[in-house]
Design a protein that fits this description.
Blueprint: H1 3-33, E1 52-59, E2 62-63, H2 70-78, E3 83-90, H3 94-104, H4 108-116, E4 122-126, E5 129-139, E6 152-161, E7 165-171, H5 178-185, H6 188-191, H7 195-228, H8 237-254, H9 258-265, H10 274-340, H11 355-376
Parallel strand pairs: 3-7
Antiparallel strand pairs: 1-2, 1-3, 4-5, 5-6, 6-7
Length: 380
């Protein structure tokens, strides 16, 4: 370490230690006096809220030892050559995000989008800061697909990319970034490319999750397809509609990302270093494959739904034919009972000793003949 860097480290460490030394008795006095509603914090402590997951300073692809608050990390990165800050946030509040925005000079519109997390995938530029929005997705395991089953869980990922920093804002638990950070810290040569290398790694992890979700959804579609043509109860129409809604939600996450990636990977683009654009093109290939899969799944679901509705119609027709066949056989008994129930005085076989068993036998014979005829024609 150079003499100037060593002097700066000692100075910063001394200032932080002195600030903490003064802050401790002040907090104790506030608790004693009952005035702890407004805690006194050292500079940068207001950033250490629940939203900050990790904050690191990277120089030449290597992480600097020690812990930094977001403002301290930015100052450290600006004082070093080939250095940047990777700040990770999870579902920040408006106050927390506003504090980060003041330090990193983020545009208020992008900050609002990062807090609300209700955006389509997009890429916007605010001065020297680029704002990339991704939709994350995760497959939800389930034993049986019903009309209330959740198949795909979605969330959002926002990435602020500046000259000296990259800020990732995660909403939901669909894609965690701790493995991404560990992988990138093991690849110092790629991490040395700067903040856009982190943006690539996060985007790659999100798209890889798309591929995994698409493969697992395909298994559910195979189950639905088998049920649509099965002889038993099969797949209910409600479950097929539920799967269709889940596919629509997944499609909203995957398809709109094509345009931002096309902008990043365009040959004339100067947003991303040339070396990183090659990696983004690989991500774009995976995304294209997933988009094609999702489109085919939508067509397959429409075919399954039509097949299931046709099967329901066929089953209803079969039931109606069975009902009509049994009604035809019962009409024979009704006709004989109606004739002999009219109580006319002069009717054949009224006084015959074997009239009753003869009529019963005749009705049974006609019923058996009708039953055999219906069975031969497939009505029963």
């Amino acid at each position: 370490m150079s003499e100037s860097n060593l002097r700066r480290t000692r100075t910063n460490g001394g200032n932080r230690s002195l600030s903490r030394a003064w802050a401790a008795p002040v907090r104790a006095m506030n608790r004693f006096l009952g005035t702890a509603d407004e805690p006194i914090s050292t500079p940068g402590e207001q950033f250490h809220g629940s939203a900050v997951v990790d904050c690191g300073v990277y120089v030449d692809g290597r992480r600097e030892p020690g812990e930094f608050s977001p403002d301290e990390a930015l100052r450290e990165a600006c004082d070093r050559d080939n250095a940047f800050v990777w700040l990770g946030l999870h579902e920040p509040s408006q106050a927390e995000m506003s504090a980060i925005a003041r330090t990193y000079n983020l545009h208020e519109l992008a900050v609002e989008d990062a807090v609300k997390a209700e955006q389509r995938p997009k890429l916007e530029q605010f001065g020297s800061v680029h704002f990339l929005v991704l939709r994350t997705a995760r497959y939800v395991p389930h034993g049986e697909l019903t009309e209330t089953s959740q198949v795909v869980e979605t969330g959002q990922m926002m990435i602020f990319v500046g000259d000296r920093f990259v800020i990732t804002v995660r909403h939901g638990d669909a894609t965690r970034l701790a493995p991404v950070r560990a992988d990138m810290e093991a690849r110092g040569d790629l991490l040395a490319q700067g903040p856009w290398a982190v943006a690539y790694a996060v985007t790659d992890r999100v798209v890889d999750a798309y591929v995994a979700v698409a493969d697992q959804v395909e298994a559910d579609l195979d189950t639905l397809e088998e049920g649509a043509f099965s002889r038993d109860a099969g797949s209910p129409v409600q479950a097929i509609y539920q799967m269709k809604r889940e596919i629509v939600e997944f499609r909203r996450a995957v398809v709109p990302l094509q345009r931002p990636l096309a902008t990043i990977t365009a040959p004339q683009s100067r947003l991303v270093p040339k070396e990183i654009r090659r990696y983004f093109r690989d991500v774009q290939d995976h995304l294209t494959r997933t988009v094609e899969q999702v489109s085919s799944y939508d067509d397959l679901l429409n075919s399954i739904l039509q097949a299931r509705l046709a099967q329901v119609t066929v089953d209803q027709n079969n039931d109606m034919r069975k009902i009509a066949a049994w009604a035809g056989m019962s009409a024979i008994w009704t006709a004989f009972a109606g004739i002999y129930g009219m109580n006319f005085e002069h009717m054949p076989e009224l006084t015959w000793q074997y009239g009753y068993p003869a009529v019963i036998s005749l009705m049974l014979l006609i019923s058996v003949l009708l039953y055999r005829a219906f069975r031969r024609n497939g009505w029963l």
